[in-house]
């Protein structure tokens, strides 16, 4: 029997096991396979129904889902192809009867009337809902909001969503069935046959997002959900939440149709070839995109598996490896990996591609260690409800893979590990849901002592957990206490007051530990998008802000430390300042010496000016920014700069030591602090050539010492080295092109190479072989005074264009020292190249 939900398949499986025993019952879903050798009853999700085997009886539940754009083609395929040897049963709404009769002419239509009455009970406020009510919402945010209000007004609620694992869902439902809570908040997942003892169903909204747009529920969808109220001979009611004129208000026509169970017939079902040919990628895609030849059927919208297949079909590696039916089938199986995390086709395609590459090479198995690493990344019960739900969704991906016996060398072991991981996360999620939406903790806190803060027993565990009478109320991370996010708003002040009163001594001890800590215990936090901070033992304790100079930022202590005594604050600030000074000596010594030289009266004023400007820029600056200052230096004064380790390049002026990864990080952090902006992303250490990337990536790369050349960015010391190499090659009369060994080994594209050559003052010799030009160094022209630049005789005349020369002409000699006009031509030629 095929079911629409994993939760429902599991529920029916548990009920059949109770009747027939575990040895006779199998459960087959994407993430769970329990198949005893002598199994006679198979409970499956519709997607996992084994169609090739021979069964006496086959059933498909909720067949009207065939009209759903996302999953409809699966149910339509099962309706058309899944057959039992002796009997086949299609279960579903009467609205699909006409279509089933048209598609399967010899079918017998048997109606099953509802024994209980379902009636409209009107709109009710949340605080006036009757007990044993289920409130239905259509987003996680709305579910959480309703459950939070129920906790405030009625003491708590259980939560049921389709994304929950069976273990979490069962634990939540059990609280409702046991009477621990009288209310249940759920998404429309309860409409698919989940059997609950519900007397009243209240709709928080009548609109849902169906994956493409926000729309009002159809009458059939309303009735499917409202029908959860009442069981067998027990009547039930439905209604809306709020006023009669709210967004959840039913129209008289909708009420009449639901009470009479009368709905418009379904006009069509979605279809896709369920058994496509596997001769080649082309025939597979063609069959999957084939349109149906029956008027009752419509071509299904492109599903995620087909979207992923199309993306992979244009990959040369895939095209090269996928030859023959076996490889095509293996690729199509990989594309069938469900997108449990709902991250979209592009992101999911990357996961599928990684899996398929393992399946298509070597032994054809996913490496055990790699698979285990993916599980280890999820093996944490820390985090809020959404975080735990996200981990469970990711764990479902690996559970699906673990139950493909041909994908892993040891599938049984990994299936057990994924099961244990999902159970662990499910228990944590159940605890988080209960803690957030069931009012147990406050009862414990105030059981004997009322609202008297002074009597609250507060303890701090070794890991920073702060407890009140054994109940966790928050964490102490470093110096900062944070209330547990599940704490009610009205309880926050109470818990904060209790914690702060008892945490004073603990915080003073921590401050003493910080003051006496070794340098290795501190770290710079410069993550992209964040304000630069100083961390102690992994916890932020201070922020770097703009100070008098680039090298002297303000160290602003965390607000939790500012609550300590003034004397303690001064000692902490002094310790952090000493650490920052040590880091400057370690990573930014050239920059420190520039600042000292800029203030040294023994250094000529014009040289001090260069030191000051360069130091203010972080020790790395485009030459254009310093051309004016360089123009006032004579040869000896330039020698002073070079003796200080400064490289006066054709494009940039910099100290090579400041291009090291540690120096780049500190320069980026100090520059961010200076302008009051978040840190920018920096290239990975050791790279010399990177893609240009987005705007902020380019800005961060420039800080790290990269320069843009077309679609690539090259580290400035390598750019200068290539410029010198070009001079040497041209001086020898050798061609220097994008295919030269130095350029090829660097990985520079032809477009980036040409941009580099032009920026460095070279021009292609006219008449040279196209695509393989010889070059001549023309230098860059002096910046003309405004009146000369506007001279009528000069307007429109191209600048720097060389006279025609033979290909083997001797290159023009470069000046002995860079002239002060070296960047004037660059501004005109490559102004947008940075």
TrEMBL record:
<dbReference type="InterPro" id="IPR001650">
    <property type="entry name" value="Helicase_C-like"/>
</dbReference>
<dbReference type="InterPro" id="IPR055206">
    <property type="entry name" value="DEXQc_SUV3"/>
</dbReference>
<keyword id="KW-0067">ATP-binding</keyword>
<dbReference type="Pfam" id="PF22527">
    <property type="entry name" value="DEXQc_Suv3"/>
</dbReference>
<dbReference type="Pfam" id="PF00271">
    <property type="entry name" value="Helicase_C"/>
</dbReference>
<feature type="region of interest" description="Disordered">
    <location>
        <begin position="773"/>
        <end position="818"/>
    </location>
</feature>
<dbReference type="GO" id="GO:0005524">
    <property type="term" value="F:ATP binding"/>
</dbReference>
<feature type="compositionally biased region" description="Low complexity">
    <location>
        <begin position="806"/>
        <end position="818"/>
    </location>
</feature>
<dbReference type="InterPro" id="IPR027417">
    <property type="entry name" value="P-loop_NTPase"/>
</dbReference>
<keyword id="KW-0347">Helicase</keyword>
<feature type="domain" description="Helicase C-terminal">
    <location>
        <begin position="121"/>
        <end position="289"/>
    </location>
</feature>
<keyword id="KW-0547">Nucleotide-binding</keyword>
<dbReference type="GO" id="GO:0016787">
    <property type="term" value="F:hydrolase activity"/>
</dbReference>
<dbReference type="InterPro" id="IPR050699">
    <property type="entry name" value="RNA-DNA_Helicase"/>
</dbReference>
<dbReference type="GO" id="GO:0004386">
    <property type="term" value="F:helicase activity"/>
</dbReference>
<protein>
    <submittedName>
        <fullName>ATP-DEPENDENT DNA HELICASE</fullName>
    </submittedName>
</protein>
<keyword id="KW-0378">Hydrolase</keyword>
């Amino acid at each position: 029997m095929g079911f629409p939900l994993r939760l429902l398949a599991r529920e029916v499986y548990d009920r059949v096991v109770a009747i027939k025993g575990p040895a006779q019952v199998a459960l087959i879903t994407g993430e769970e396979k329990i198949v005893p050798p002598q199994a006679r009853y198979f409970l499956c999700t519709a997607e996992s129904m084994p169609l090739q085997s021979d069964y006496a009886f086959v059933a498909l539940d909720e067949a009207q889902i065939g009209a759903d754009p996302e999953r409809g083609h699966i149910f339509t395929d099962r309706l058309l192809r899944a057959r039992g040897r002796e009997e086949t049963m299609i279960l579903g709404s009467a609205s699909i009867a006409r279509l089933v009769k048209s598609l399967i002419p010899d079918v017998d239509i048997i109606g099953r009337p509802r024994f209980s009455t379902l009636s409209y009970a009107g709109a009710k406020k949340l605080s006036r809902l009757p007990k044993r009510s289920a409130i239905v919402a259509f987003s996680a945010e709305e579910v959480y909001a309703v459950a939070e209000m129920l906790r405030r007004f009625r003491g708590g609620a259980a939560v049921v969503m389709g994304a929950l694992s069976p273990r979490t869902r069962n634990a939540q439902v059990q609280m409702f069935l046991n009477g621990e809570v009288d209310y249940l908040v759920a998404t429309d997942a309860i409409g698919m046959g989940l059997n609950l003892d519900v007397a009243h169903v209240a709709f928080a909204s009548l609109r849902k997002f169906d994956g493409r747009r926000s729309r009002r529920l159809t009458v059939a969808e309303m009735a499917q959900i409202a029908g959860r109220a009442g069981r067998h001979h027990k009547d039930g009611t439905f209604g809306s939440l709020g006023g009669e004129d709210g967004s959840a208000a039913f129209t008289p026509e909708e009420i009449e149709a639901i009470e009479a169970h009368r709905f418009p017939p379904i006009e069509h079902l979605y279809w896709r070839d369920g058994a496509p040919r596997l001769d080649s990628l082309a025939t597979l895609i063609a069959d999957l995109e084939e349109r149906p030849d029956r008027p009752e059927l419509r071509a299904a919208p492109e599903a995620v598996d087909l979207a992923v297949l199309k993306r992979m079909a244009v990959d040369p590696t895939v095209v090269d490896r996928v030859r023959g039916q076996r490889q095509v089938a293996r690729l199509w199986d990989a594309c069938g990996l469900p997108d449990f995390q709902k991250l979209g086709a592009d992101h999911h395609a990357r996961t599928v591609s990684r899996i398929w590459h393992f399946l298509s090479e070597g032994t054809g198995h996913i490496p055990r260690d790699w698979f285990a690493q993916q599980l280890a990344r999820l093996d944490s019960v820390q985090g809020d409800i959404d975080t735990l739900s996200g981990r469970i969704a990711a764990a479902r991906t690996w559970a699906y893979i673990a139950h493909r016996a041909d994908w892993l060398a040891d599938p049984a072991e990994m299936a057990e590990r994924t099961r244990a991981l999902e159970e662990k996360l499910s228990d944590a999620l159940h605890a988080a849901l209960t803690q957030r939406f069931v009012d147990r903790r406050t009862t414990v806190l105030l059981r004997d002592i009322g609202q008297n803060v002074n009597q609250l027993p507060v303890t701090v565990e070794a890991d920073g957990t702060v407890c009140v009478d054994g109940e966790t109320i928050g964490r102490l991370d470093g110096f900062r206490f944070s209330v547990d996010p599940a704490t009610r708003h009205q309880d926050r002040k109470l818990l904060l007051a209790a914690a702060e009163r008892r945490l004073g001594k603990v915080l003073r001890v921590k401050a003493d530990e910080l003051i006496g800590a070794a340098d290795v215990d501190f770290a710079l936090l410069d993550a992209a998008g964040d304000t630069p901070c100083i961390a102690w033992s992994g916890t932020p304790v201070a922020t770097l802000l703009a100070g008098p100079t680039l090298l002297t930022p303000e160290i602003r202590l965390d607000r939790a430390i500012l609550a300590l005594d003034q004397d303690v604050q001064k000692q902490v600030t002094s310790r952090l300042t000493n650490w920052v000074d040590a880091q400057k000596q370690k990573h930014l010594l050239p920059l420190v010496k520039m600042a000292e030289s800029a203030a040294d009266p023994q250094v000529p004023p014009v040289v001090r000016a260069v030191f000051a400007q360069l130091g203010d820029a972080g020790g790395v600056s485009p030459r254009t920014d310093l051309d004016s200052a360089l123009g006032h230096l004579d040869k000896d004064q330039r020698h002073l700069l070079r003796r200080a380790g400064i490289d006066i390049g054709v494009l940039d002026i910099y100290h090579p030591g400041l291009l090291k990864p540690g120096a780049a990080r500190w320069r980026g952090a100090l520059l961010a602090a200076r302008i009051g902006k978040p840190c920018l992303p920096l290239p990975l250490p050791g790279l010399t050539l990177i893609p240009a990337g987005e705007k902020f990536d380019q800005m961060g790369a420039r800080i790290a010492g990269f320069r843009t050349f077309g679609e690539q960015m090259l580290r400035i010391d390598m750019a200068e080295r290539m410029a010198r190499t070009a001079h040497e090659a041209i001086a020898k009369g050798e061609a220097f092109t994008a295919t030269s060994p130095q350029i090829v080994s660097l990985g520079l594209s032809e477009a980036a190479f040409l941009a580099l050559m032009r920026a460095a003052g070279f021009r292609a010799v006219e008449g040279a072989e196209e695509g393989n030009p010889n070059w001549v160094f023309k230098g860059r022209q002096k910046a003309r005074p405004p009146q000369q630049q506007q001279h009528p005789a000069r307007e429109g005349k191209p600048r720097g264009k060389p006279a025609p020369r033979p290909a083997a002409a001797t290159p023009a000699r470069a000046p002995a020292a860079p002239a002060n006009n070296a960047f004037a031509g660059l501004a005109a030629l490559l102004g947008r190249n940075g």
